[in-house]
Amino acid sequence: MSTIYLKSAYGKPSPGIIEAVARGEAVIVEQAELSPEILSAHTGLITGQQLDQDAMLKLKPALEAFLDRGGRWFFNGHMVRPLVDGMAQYRPIAEPKRADFGLAAINPHPIYDGIDLNKLETNKGVAGFYGRGCNPLPEGAIAVNGLGAAKIPVDWVWARPKGGRIFSHSGNDLAGMGLEWGLAPELSARILAWANGGPCFDPWPQDAATPAAELPLAEPEDYRGLRTSSRSGRRIVAPSSGTYYNIRSLEGPCYTAAFDVICMPEQLGDVLRPEDILWVPCRTPAQRMIAQKQVVARHLQAGGTVVALGESRSDLWLPAVAFTETETNWWWWLDPSADLRVRVSEAATDHPLMQGIGDKEVTWHLHGWFVPPEGATVLARDGEGRPILYEDKVSTPGTMILSSLDPMFHHGSHFMPATTRFLDRFVPNLKAYAHV
Q: Coil, strand or helix: which one is 255?
């Protein structure tokens, strides 16, 4: 028996996980290949923040059976689908201030033995990566670490009445925390050890410390799932990879009215019409769209439109895209006088997609830049003058709108308000553009 490292993201797992596989302590399973039979053959499960919660929901009976047998599940991210009875939807801190992100132990857990939580609280001095709210405590769960004065339970462990244990970390992947202190490999090893039956709360605490009785959390949002539309005319079609940030951005109250169709990437071949606008959200795991490369190519050849935002590796599944990744500086704004020097272009002034979008709305941080083909319209550039947002009507009979900006990831993560300001303008602009 060993632990399943469920691979939902594109790219290789960390060296520590690969080494654990070689030792027989873990097995890497692509999420698309996860089945009840695979779950039943293992005793541990680790999932990351790019978990497809829609796909996981279909395996809910098998997941609960896995836990009933005494399995352990380490869950990273925001729970936005009811994957296990007794767990509730993630709730962010309402109108958070810097002090609300202070991290402190509530009931010290072996995973954190000897680790200074101050080294996990910020990333290059920026708070919020560790957590911005919580997956609410199930009845009987023990809070491990808390945020702010109220000790919002960002980390907790639950020994389910029917069996098994769940460790919930409701922030960015815990195994990626403490990078500047070299803590990530150790955290990854401890998570794996826990999933494989390592130290936990033994015996189970009978008089555990608790968070505040009243927590400053926003109310849950209403996410209604995938949907289709048979209406005539141009539609905006969004493939959701089932990540918590896709679900909130596409189904949450802010923008869901803009999307006529929300489907799985694998359904695009049956859904897309030539007149549709295909909007691929930020940080869609690239393998999901690589598998749809021919579908997207046919859409463009038929004159369709594709919007592809950042961190989805559009260069791997769209034609004529030349992209260079760059190191991301997310801490630049800690200096009040700093300027990332991102600028909208002169062409953006009267472009319908850019109405109301100025330099401030396209400035949070950078992931890379493009070399657009001759004849493309550049709409925003980085501080070196390199394109980060452009429209390409020359490479195919269709239209491609590409950016390295990742607003839907951050909006969907309740993180970085500038990204919401961008979407507040870009979404209605695109809706108007669709009906021109």
A: coil
